[in-house]
Every structure is written in structure tokens, then in C-alpha cells.
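Hi R.,

As promised on Friday, here is the backbone we talked about, encoded as C-alpha cells. Could you run it through your design pipeline when you get a chance and send me back a sequence?
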């Protein structure tokens, strides 16, 4: 019995050692599998995040540039109208009229006061009248520079001569975000502050693009507990201020625990120098936190993505294995049963791991499919056919192009020939190693594609995003940038640019420039008010437009009651006929809002290249000719006369 007992004990010990070794190997291998799984999946997430951040920044920068130019042209036109209006004449009621005329959310006047301070002297928001700006930081610096005739250089916003627009900001008196712009009225010595509501830069194409991404990372990817996009420039400020701001502006999107990031102890210099994804294990009161840091900067905007991994399944596996070891040591006599239990446990763990891996992969596919319209991979076959090797997304479902199988389909079996040809050309270029970004119109929508070659494969991967609404917004902003908001004619900036482009080409054709000013318009404004004056200007614009129909040129409103027309024509007789048509349109009174108004027009004419081949001189000569004839009785148009030497 002793011998048998020893044999059984020895056998039990051998089996226990073998099983312990097998368990140790399993735990070690499983830990490596978890680490490899997380690393590979986070690499995939990193690629998507970087592309999404780059796309969002591109949309935001384009929109901001267009909206700033739009505000400049609105305030430039308003400044022309207020050139002769003193600040004390601008009551809230008068400002409201100008606000509505220029399609603004609000309008205010900033005037210098004692002690080098600046105050709001008039506003459509009555509550803010009298507020001073001395404690407004860089905003006050920008105001002071404008009033001194300097272009602001405060490191924020957008500036040009006599103009500055601040960054997107909240209003103290109205709900939402706004763009506040300021134009220096040199004639009257005050600032014109016009602003518009700015919600479009955070619409579905911009902010929701990032919000959706981080919502899916946190909610749909089971192993990501929380994630955030961090602005490293803002974080550097917070770091040097010892994190004094509890509402840290550095965390732009997501819900990562700020204190965990602080506990990593990484300096701003180390964060800025990071070029590859890093994995950190942080000891916490509740155990360990597994954190991934992903560089996602674009251009001059350094960003960092943080992801906290939910490692509970891994720790649960360790805990179960430890309990199994303890149980095996206490019940050595039933080692076979423990072995069977181990095999089953091992099988279940592996099965659970594979199920979770599949669920995580499917969740990731759903997350990225929810952002672009579709994601695809494709290659060019030997017979020069564009072949889809992967194709998924919302537009694919709408086309019902995939029923049982969505891979390895010919592109021209799904999409029209023209669409396929554009993709084919860009795929050829991308296969050379140069990523391609291009736009394609399809089914009344506009899609932006981004494709790049898959490393070590003769294949490209890409995604397409519906940018139809974004393009409509840009077109609207461009229209406002070069059109007068009151008459819908071209504005002065667009008019001068057109003449400059024509004259710079030195064409052989002849052109004529009309500079027109209304007679008695000021009396109409003073008698009936600015609102009726605006109606009159619209009627005048239509009358002139009718008179010049058929001529090849550009018609613009270049000032308060000044209009200009530049067109191709060499015959002096034809030029005179057009001028007479314009003047004849004002021989009879115009009926405006129930009033019969008698208005006249004086026309000054300069010719290219006879009078000058320089755009500025042409405008000056036409203006001189207009003023020369304005007070002559009878005659209402005149050509520029060169002075004899």
C-alpha cells in the first residue's frame, strides 16, 4: 500500500506538474493572444481615426475660410453705407434695419472712450450697450489695433486691412455659437461689429463625423471602455498651468478620464514627439489600466487619441485559472476529473475568445460603415477590369448591388461606365504609391473618395463620403463672397478682380467701362428712409440690367448708389447707344412701395485700351468722367477726355 500510495502520489505530482505547465503555457499564450489582438485592432482604429481627423480638419478649415471672406464682404459693403453716418445717429432701430439688410444675426458699434478703453455705444442687443472691453484679452488688443489703423496680429482669428474676425465663440446674450467680425470705419472712427450664427461648421459633415466615430468606439467596440481626442497644444497650456482648469478644453471629443491621462506622467515634449502608437499599463487603485496612445495630428494641429481598454475578460481568465490550480492541488486524487474540467474550461475559453474576437471585428466593421457612405478594396485585373475585392456601406445597400455575395465583383456591373472610368484612373495612380483624393457626382449626390495602396499588395483600399451638403454650403458662401446682398449684382471686390484679370491678359479686343451714380438718391433716403431706399436700389439694379442685356460683360454695385458696367465693345456708336438706353430707363418716375420717385443717372465712360490699359486708371478715368458730367445740364453721359500735354 505504501508503495502504491507513493506511486499514486508521484503520479499525482507528475500529472499536477504537467497540468501546471500546460496551464502556465496556456495563460502565457492567451496573454500574448490578447495583446496581439488589441494591438492589431488598435492599429486598424488608428488608421480610421487619422483619416477621419484629417477629413474633419479639412472641412472645418475650408468652411472657416469661406465664412470669414463672406463676413468681410458684408461688412465692407456696410462700411461704405456708414461712411457718412456718425455713431450717435446709429440707434438700435437703425442698426436693426442694417442688420436685416445684410442678413446678420446682430450688429453693434464699438467706440473709443476715456482711459484707452473701448465701449459698445450702440447695438441691436440693447442689454450690451455700455459694456467696455478693457478686460476682453486679445479681443481688446485686436479692437485697439483696428482703431489705430493697424492690422491686428493677436495670433487668433482672421485679419486683413481694417478688418478682423475672432474665433468661433459663444454669445453672452443669445443661444449658440457665432462669428463676430469687426470693420474699422475710418471716416467716423468707430468699429462696425457684425456677426452671424455659426452652426454649420459643426453639422453632420464636420462635428458629427467625429462625434459618431468616438460614440461607436466607446459603445460598439466591446473592449474599448472610453476614448478621447486630445488637442496637444491646449494640453501643454493645461500642463504648465498645473491643470487649473477643471473643464479642460484639451479633450475635444470622447469621455476619457482626464486624471488617468495625468497619471501617465508624460510631458508635452514627449507627447509632441510621439510618432507611433504606444501601449501603457498603469497601476490604479482597482488594479491595472491598459491605455493606448495614438498620434493623429494633421498639418499644424497636433492631436492625440487615447483609448482605455476593458481588460476584464483577460483578468477573469487569470482568476479562473488560479482557482483551477488551487482546486487541483486540494483534490489531487481526482486529477483526471480536474484534467477533464481543464480541457472543457480550455475549450470554452478558446471558444469564448473566438466569439468575442468575431463580435469585436463585426462591431468595428459596423462602426466604420456608419461613417463613410461605403468602404471598399479593389484591384485591376490582367484584362484591365476594375474588380472589387471588398465593398460595404450604406450606398451599397441602397443600390442592392450585393445580395448573397458582396466581394469580387466587377465595378462596371454595379456602377455606370462614367463612374467606373473615374475610379479606374485614380486606382491606377494610387497603385503607384501616391494616395488619391477625388470627387465623383453620382445619382444627384457628390461623393469624395480617398484611396491608397495596401502595403505589400497590388490592391487599393478606400472610402467615400457624401459631401453634397458641404458643397452646397460652399457654393452659397462663394456666391455671398462676390455678390452684393441687396441687389444680387456682383460686388466691388468681384468687379475689380474681373477687370484686373481682363487687363492683365492684354487682350486685343476693346472694352468699355461705365461708372454710374444716381441723381437725387440722398434726397429719397432722407425723405422716405433707408428701407424704401433699399427697395429703390433693387429696382435701379433691375432697370440697368435690362438696359445692358445682350452685352458681354459684368454689372456690379460698387458703392452705396454707385454702379459699374464693364463690357466688350469697340464701336463708339454702340457704346453711346447702351449709355442712352440706361439713361432712358430713368426718364419716367419709378413706382416704389406706392411712391412715384424721380431718379436720374449720370454715366462716365472710359475705354480699354484707348484711354488706359491699367485697371485702376480705367476705373479712375470713368469715375472722373461721371463727376464731370453729373452737374452739366442736359447731358447725362460723357467719355473720358485725355488732357493735352
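Update: got your reply. Pasting your designed sequence below so it's all in one thread:
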Amino acid at each position: 500500500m505504501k508503495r502504491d500510495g507513493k506511486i499514486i502520489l508521484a503520479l499525482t505530482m507528475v500529472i499536477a506538474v504537467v497540468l501546471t505547465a500546460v496551464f502556465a503555457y496556456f495563460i502565457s499564450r492567451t496573454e500574448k493572444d490578447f495583446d496581439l489582438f488589441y494591438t492589431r485592432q488598435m492599429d486598424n482604429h488608428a488608421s480610421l481615426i487619422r483619416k477621419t481627423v484629417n477629413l474633419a480638419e479639412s472641412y472645418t478649415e475650408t468652411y472657416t475660410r469661406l465664412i470669414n471672406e463672406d463676413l468681410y464682404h458684408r461688412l465692407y459693403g456696410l462700411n461704405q453705407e456708414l461712411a457718412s453716418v456718425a455713431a450717435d445717429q446709429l440707434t438700435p432701430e437703425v442698426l436693426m434695419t442694417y442688420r436685416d439688410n445684410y442678413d446678420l444675426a446682430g450688429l453693434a458699434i464699438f467706440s473709443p472712450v476715456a482711459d484707452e478703453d473701448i465701449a459698445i455705444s450702440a447695438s441691436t442687443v440693447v442689454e450690451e450697450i455700455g459694456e467696455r472691453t478693457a478686460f476682453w484679452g486679445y479681443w481688446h488688443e485686436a479692437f485697439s489695433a483696428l482703431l489705430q489703423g493697424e492690422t491686428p496680429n493677436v495670433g487668433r482669428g482672421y485679419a486683413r486691412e481694417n478688418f478682423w474676425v475672432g474665433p468661433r465663440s459663444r454669445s453672452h446674450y443669445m443661444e449658440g455659437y457665432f462669428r463676430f467680425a469687426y470693420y474699422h470705419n475710418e471716416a467716423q472712427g468707430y468699429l462696425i461689429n457684425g456677426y452671424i450664427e455659426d452652426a454649420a461648421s459643426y453639422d453632420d459633415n464636420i462635428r458629427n463625423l467625429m462625434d459618431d466615430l468616438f460614440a461607436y468606439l466607446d459603445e460598439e467596440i466591446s473592449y474599448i471602455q472610453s476614448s478621447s481626442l486630445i488637442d496637444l497644444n491646449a494640453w501643454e497650456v493645461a500642463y504648465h498651468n498645473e491643470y487649473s482648469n477643471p473643464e479642460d478644453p484639451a479633450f475635444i471629443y470622447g469621455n476619457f478620464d482626464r486624471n488617468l491621462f495625468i497619471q501617465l506622467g508624460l510631458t508635452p515634449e514627449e507627447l509632441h514627439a510621439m510618432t507611433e502608437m504606444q501601449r501603457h499599463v498603469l497601476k490604479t487603485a482597482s488594479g491595472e489600466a491598459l491605455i493606448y496612445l495614438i498620434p493623429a495630428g494633421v498639418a499644424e494641429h497636433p492631436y492625440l487619441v487615447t483609448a482605455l481598454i476593458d481588460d476584464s475578460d483577460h483578468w477573469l481568465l487569470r482568476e479562473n485559472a488560479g482557482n483551477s490550480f488551487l482546486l487541483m492541488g486540494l483534490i489531487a486524487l481526482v486529477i483526471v476529473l480536474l484534467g477533464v474540467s481543464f480541457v472543457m474550461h480550455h475549450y470554452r475559453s478558446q471558444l469564448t475568445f473566438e466569439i468575442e474576437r468575431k463580435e469585436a471585428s463585426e462591431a468595428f466593421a459596423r462602426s466604420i460603415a456608419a461613417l463613410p457612405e461605403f468602404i471598399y478594396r479593389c484591384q485591376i485585373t490582367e484584362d484591365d477590369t476594375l474588380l472589387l475585392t471588398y465593398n460595404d456601406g450604406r450606398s451599397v445597400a441602397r443600390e442592392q448591388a450585393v445580395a448573397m455575395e458582396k466581394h469580387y465583383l466587377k465595378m462596371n456591373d454595379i456602377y455606370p461606365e462614367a463612374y467606373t472610368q473615374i475610379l479606374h484612373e485614380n486606382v491606377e495612380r494610387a497603385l503607384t504609391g501616391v494616395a488619391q483624393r477625388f470627387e465623383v457626382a453620382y445619382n444627384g449626390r457628390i461623393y469624395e473618395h480617398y484611396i491608397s495602396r495596401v502595403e505589400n499588395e497590388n490592391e487599393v483600399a478606400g472610402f467615400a463620403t457624401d459631401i453634397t451638403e458641404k458643397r452646397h454650403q460652399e457654393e452659397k458662401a462663394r456666391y455671398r463672397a462676390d455678390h452684393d446682398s441687396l441687389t444680387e449684382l456682383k460686388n466691388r471686390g468681384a468687379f475689380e478682380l474681373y477687370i484686373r484679370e481682363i487687363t492683365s491678359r492684354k487682350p486685343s479686343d476693346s472694352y468699355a467701362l461705365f461708372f454710374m451714380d444716381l441723381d437725387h438718391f440722398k434726397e429719397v433716403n432722407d425723405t422716405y428712409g433707408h428701407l424704401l431706399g433699399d427697395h429703390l436700389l433693387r429696382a435701379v439694379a433691375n432697370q440697368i440690367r435690362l438696359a445692358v442685356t445682350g452685352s458681354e460683360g459684368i454689372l456690379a454695385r460698387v458703392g452705396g448708389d454707385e454702379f459699374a458696367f464693364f463690357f466688350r465693345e469697340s464701336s463708339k456708336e454702340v457704346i453711346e447707344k447702351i449709355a442712352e438706353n440706361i439713361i432712358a430707363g430713368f426718364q419716367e418716375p419709378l413706382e416704389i412701395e406706392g411712391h412715384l420717385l424721380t431718379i436720374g443717372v449720370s454715366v462716365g465712360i472710359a475705354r480699354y485700351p484707348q484711354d488706359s490699359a491699367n485697371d485702376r486708371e480705367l476705373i479712375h478715368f470713368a469715375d472722373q468722367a461721371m463727376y464731370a458730367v453729373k452737374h452739366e445740364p442736359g447731358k447725362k453721359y460723357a467719355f473720358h477726355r485725355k488732357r493735352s500735354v
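One thing I noticed while checking it: The chain has 17 helices and 25 strands.

Thanks again,
M.
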